[in-house]
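Worked example (supplementary).
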Amino acid sequence: MSAGGPANAAGLRRDALRERLALFSLSLPALVLVVVTMVIPVAWLFWLSFLADDGSLSLVNYRRLVVQPSYGRILLTTFEVSGLATLICVVLGYPLAYVLSQLRPRVANLCMLGVLMPFWTSILVRTYAWLVLLQRNGLVNDWGKRLGLWEAPVSLVYNLPGTLVGLVHIMLPFLVLPLYGSMRAIDRDYLRAAANLGASPAAAFRQVFFPLSLPGLLAGSLIVFILCLGAYVTPAMLGGGRVIMVANGIATDIQMFFNWGAASALGVVLLVLAAAMLFIASRLTRLDRLFGSHGT
Amino acid sequence: MSRDASLPISIRQVAKSYGPVTALDHVDLDIRSGEFLTLLGPSGSGKTTLLMVLAGFTRPDQGSLRFGDHEVIRLAPHKRDVGMVFQSYALFPHMDVAANIGFPLRLRRVGKAEAAARVERALEMVRLAGYGRRRIDELSGGQRQPLSALDKQLREHMQIELRRLHEALGMTTVYVTHDQREALTLSDRVAVINHGRIMQLDAPRRLYERPATRFVAEFIGESNFLPVEASGGGYCLAGQRLKLPADFVPGGPRLLMLRPERLRILDGAAPDQLNVLHGTVQDVVYQGDTVLVQVLLAAGAAVAVRAASTSGAMAAIPQRGAPVRLGLAPDDTALLADDGFAP
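After joint prediction of all chains, the assembly is encoded as:
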């Protein structure tokens, strides 16, 4: 017997380490990709945002965000549009996901195809389609006049409502998918048990189904909201210059003013705000669990 | 509607088909006031469908269902006032234990203080006092109750506990299981169900000792079956006239049911009053609490005999290959109708 340590301990430890390294090496390609295409550019932007025009370290780009009211407006618009779009998505998406979750799985899968269909067309094409539908001489205005809903053409596009229509159309699946998943996961026995204990269908929905669907609703809303924060194509095309969100501001800074510092600062602020939102939301869900444990 | 939890339940001609599959075939069943009745049957027999009809979650094609004098067959589940324990537990995960128990009280707008007191009393009754603030996922399987997921020891403990609860509350109770021992342990009466029909409805002991048909005998307990010949108002096995229970009513072709624990290995002279079967020991398997002896009868069939594992009883078991005589008391000599059921 060799001296030192219990039998084979060192060898077994080495085997364990080798196994872990082998597993890690599987994720290496993805890791490299993320570092090259995400981490390095973001770090570079971060660095740029702290450089003044003459290349010296300064906070001038951030000061501009505070001092110039136009930037404040951009941030406000971004949150306002994202919040409204999320709200509309919830109002439209919750009933949709509910109906889907109550259908037989095969029928539900078929309907789900319909929900996912928009994913198969590019955002650009869909946004152009809305442009055609919503413009002054578009289909919607045409029908509205023929049905006698309004006389003169209504501006449905190049403004906030137009932007919202486009955004909601693009974002709805992102809400419906996680929500549908969480609703499907709710055991029907919970609803049966509620009815068995005397809950009318409405009471069973309010006190059992809805609370159990909340995590999915929150996840979906969060995805939609954060995706909206970075929206570019829709406000650019359907906003007609009246709806300027952060991504549009960044584009303008770069394309018109060649000001990479200002654009970077705006990007960093957006990133930080999105991260803060995620953090708050994760806190909220934990609070939700806490409240849940004390009943209603 | 004020409800009495010990109302009798009357089921009349309740039928339900799913396409070509008959789940319930015109079931008639009367459940007595305060009775613990178990629906026992293989999976797909219709026992769960019948329970779902009672709770109102399955709409039958026809029939009548009465709780006391009230016809309830068309009543919505939430208006029926029956308590159902779900196999999946169905404890609301977003509420704590007390909120789960208090849920029906909140729906019925019972005052907060009274509801809290009643919840506490209920918790005490099931020996979970002090667990009210626990989250559902903090409860063990036993604390969540349904029996099927528990290990044998805990399960038997819970069965005794359920009996105690039922005796204390006196509620009319319908229980569904495919576990025959559970059915025998818990029930006042057991309804054995197959193909959507009630095959036999009897008290546990009668069901076990006097099954009406081969299906019931197969489903409840172990047994071997031997064909017997009718002769002169009685029945014969291998030419030997069988001594039968006093209440036996002859008629039609019959099978002799042999329960392993009712057969006795005879040592020395056979008492006159027993039926005696001759055979050879094929195998002796020690199983801890009992010994299983496989015997090939002279009549040709193999039967199992369960003997006690006490040293005295063990000493009386012949060696493998040796001849053996088995005794069967007339009261344990059950002749039953052959319904053609073969497992």
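Two points are worth noting when inspecting this output. The radius of gyration of chain A is 26 Å. The longest helix of chain A spans residues 69-102.
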